[in-house]
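Kindly review this record before class:
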Amino acid sequence: MADEALSAGAAARRLGVAVTTLRTWHQRYGLGPSEHVPGHHRRYTPADLARLEIMRRLTVDGVAPAEAARWARQAPGTVPPEPGARLRRQPQLGAATVAQRAAAVAPRAARDGGGTAIPVGRAGPVARGLARAAMRLDSVAIGETIAQAIATDGVVATWDGLLRPVLAGIGERHAATAALIEVEHLASRCVSEALAAAARSHPTAGPARILLSCADEEQHTLPLEALGAALAETGVGYRMLGARVPVAALLEAVNRTGPAAVVLWSHTPATADPDQLAALLAAPRRPLLVLAAGPGWQADTLPTGVVRPVDLTEAVSLAVAVRDSLDPSTIG
């Protein structure tokens, strides 16, 4: 709902800032939540978010926080400051007027919009907030946003609805401008850390039936890490080999561990050599299921007996089915 009041965590995700930043703006500059229901925490109204968005934009543009707060408090619906806060009384202006005047005092060199904004399509406000946090290289806000999304929606929904759109947007902007390498690296690291934390929070007791590996020379591991976290969330044990696994090393791992299923990830056609899949099918300890995951694989080149899941949900479902066929006690 458009008029829904938000908790501090939800407001931080909407704005793409850390919760600690919101608390600082509240305590130092009086830009806190105005809705208060007895017995509950205060919540941020749409008017509060409008002021905080002005604060965010100006501080990103290099305006001193105290000055940015002064402009933000001129937005409509200003609430009284916290007791003891010494704030100059300002005339109430329309949001558009505040934005125009704020832009006039802000330097132009460090804006996070325009040609360097990260496109996220229709992914929603949380994705836009995550994209803004990535542009600011704000690893704290990125980590908090991802962790909250996983806790609320689960790994698969977070990957499909939040992380994929933002990572794809960063890649699209890099392809168009040859910039944002630092953004991509930091965002990828934060995503990897969040997925690893999610996997650790769901330890599995049974054997690791699934082996996850990138194809030879394939360096894109985040989708495979998302699959691992989703499997852990579902209670399926797995082993992760990671990036750039030569065929000989993959076969050695298969022969030593005897996995029921192997997922081989390829992001680009350059790394999608079907001979790697054929080698798995011919292994002495052939897996029950070989999955060719990722956009690099072409369906008409896959050896007979290899399954190509269409998305993360299907890959998880197939892995669970294999686990359940070997461990009937897990069904239920």
In short: Residues 155-177 form the longest helix (23 residues).
